[in-house]
Amino acid sequence: MAVKCKRCKTNNAEVYLAHSNLNLCPSCFLLLTERKVKHTIDAYKMLSKDDRIGVAVSGGKDSSSLAYILNSLFEKIDVALIYIDLGVPEYSQHCLEKVETLAKMLDRELIVYSLEREMGFKIGDFKQTIYGRKICSACGTIKRYLFNKIAYDLGLTKIATGHNLDDTVETLFNFYLEGNVEAMLRLKPYLPRTHPKFVPKIKPLIGLTDFECLLYAEYRGLPTRTIECQFSRGSRMQRRKELLNMIAEKIPNFKHSLMNSHFKRILPNLEIALSKHEIKIYECPSCGMPTSLEGMPCHFCKLTKTLRP
Questions:
Q1: Does residue 155 surpass a pLDDT of 70?
Q2: Within a domain: residue 154?
């Protein structure tokens, strides 16, 4: 006998969300997913009617779902999609085609920044440097820097990224392993402006799992990449995610509990304990953008310098 949707009690359920023990039909799943995102945005006061939002898109399920949901819920807000072409063979062109299709679907502006055209190198060039075995780390540094700089140069008021619950818990888990307290303080659903050249960042999908983002993109028929980046295979991040998924199989709401516990209990106490030790923000002597390094080049400039003779 078919299981009925727990919400409408009429349609047959196709989706089971273990963390909340819910059986849902596609229509109710889509509706509840969008309501979750709206609740997150409202709870953290992420958006205002005068905002000009830059959505960081990659061609993946998360950023595509984010762009679609923001476009649906906030039609009157100025939204532009930003894609950074990293120059990964086949993969980058494939992703570009997906975000171009998405931009046309949403009728929103797409800003494409080519690393090779603008800076003269591709992400694969780091294979010949000290970052050869941790290209994902170099890639993350470059994308964070460029998304902020592009948004700042364009006068955007917020950057929205597609980081979901699984991404956040994996990052948090890594920070705990490293004892990286300063990074924990910056890991927030809404990271406000801490420097005139720092564009505030929002993570509206932080309450959604990988599984929910995947299903949402599929049910909405969104264009998403179907190939994997060659540099991400076997990365530490993927291995940490696999470990956390093993725990979630035994404790379905584990990820939600860990994230909520951190944001509601641990983070406020960390902020109080470290309130006298304010993290100072300086300007990079090379590029002029914000950095935590006093009198030294920022991480982006140090990184790109390794490629130059």
A1: yes
A2: yes
Of 110, 113, 57, 137, nearest in space to 306 by CA: 137
Give me the residues paired with residue 70 across strands: none
| 248 within 8 A of 254, measured Cβ to Cβ | yes
Q: What is the CATH number of the domain that holds 59?
A: 3.40.50.620
What the block records as the tokens of 283 is 């300007």
Q: Let me know if 159 is exposed, middle or buried by CB neighbors in 10 A (0-12, 13-18, 19+).
A: buried
Residue 148 falls inside a structural domain: yes
Give the number of other CB atoms < 10 A from CB of residue 274. Answer: 14
How deeply is 152 buried, as exposed, middle or buried, from its count of CB atoms within 10 A (0-12, 13-18, 19+)?
middle
Query: Apex CA 133: angle with CA 135 and CA 92, to 5°?
Result: 30
- Which structure tokens are listed for 10? 């009429």
The C-alpha atoms of residue 249 and residue 43 are separated, in whole angstroms, by 29
Q: Is residue 160 part of a domain?
A: yes
Which residue is it, tokens 């490629």?
Answer: 307
* pTM tops 0.90, yes or no: yes
pLDDT tens for residues 247-298? 999 999 999 999 999 999 999 998 888 877 777 889 999 999 999 888 899 9
Bridge-based pairing of strands 22-24 and 15-17 is: antiparallel
